[in-house]
Amino acid sequence: MSCVVASNESKPVELAVHANPRSRGALRPRQLIIAQRHLGREVSIHCALMAAVSECGVSRSHFTRAFKVSTGMTPSRWHLQQRMRRALDLLDGPDAIVDIAVTLGFFDQAHFTNAFTRLFRMSPGTYRKRLGE
Fold first, then answer.
1. 87-102, pLDDT tens digit by residue?
2. How far apart are CA 133 and CA 32, in angstroms?
3. Is the overall model pTM greater than 0.85, yes or no?
4. CA end-to-end span of the chain, whole Å?
């Protein structure tokens, strides 16, 4: 399986620590930065987790629990939110919604639309129209 890195060189990946890094069971600050860098850059959650777990030097189950203690959400949820934040930026541009879906690693436009609608309570097309108003 190959991993695809989303190219968004103009904007840094958000590396905010949401919880107390000294919380019991949390990732160390350096590990959290590594994790957020991989999860913010990789299109595939599987590839992002493999890379982050490997670089942090912990098991996948420990990583997942510690990430949730550190950020308040699972790695997959955090990864999805980063993709959706990028979607907001891309929807402000001229790209077709289907192209944005593919760029962000969704299977198809319907998959992207469903994920976007669940998070923002409106479709990507509606969001784009409201930007133009």
1. 999 999 999 999 999 9
2. 39
3. no
4. 42
